[in-house]
């Protein structure tokens, strides 16, 4: 059972997507935590010192996707 689940899907320019990824990376590097907000609620999640990183690239004839997943 999930205690909390936040999902967000948005269409961004490549540059704005890169900015968001930089913000996430900076938060991990500096604060060992991530902050998320949705519907007026905010939660900060501490990230363990060791994480499992999974990167998946799918190239199809009409679409390409890159998934980055962190687990701890």
What does this structure look like?
InterPro entries: Amphi-Trp_dom (IPR027598). It comes from Pseudohalioglobus sediminis. Residues 6-72 form the Amphi-Trp domain. Pfam families: Amphi-Trp. This is Amphi-Trp domain-containing protein. The protein is an alpha+beta fold and 72 residues long. The protein has one domain. It contains one helix and four strands. A two-stranded antiparallel ribbon has the order 1-2. Strands 3-4 form a two-stranded antiparallel sheet. The longest helix is centred in the N-terminal third of the chain and has 18 residues, at 14-31. The chain is globular, with a radius of gyration of 14 Å. 0% of the residues are buried. The model has no long low-confidence stretch (mean pLDDT 93).
Strand content: 35-45%
SSE class: alpha+beta
Largest sheet, in brief, is: 2 strands, antiparallel
Query: How many E strands?
Result: 4
How far apart the termini lie comes to 17 Å
Shape: globular
Return the average pLDDT rounded to an integer. 93
Structural domain count: 1
Q: Record the strand order, biggest sheet.
A: 1-2
Radius of gyration: 14 Å
Which regions are unreliable across 5 or more consecutive residues at pLDDT < 50? none
Please give the share of residues in helix.
25-40%
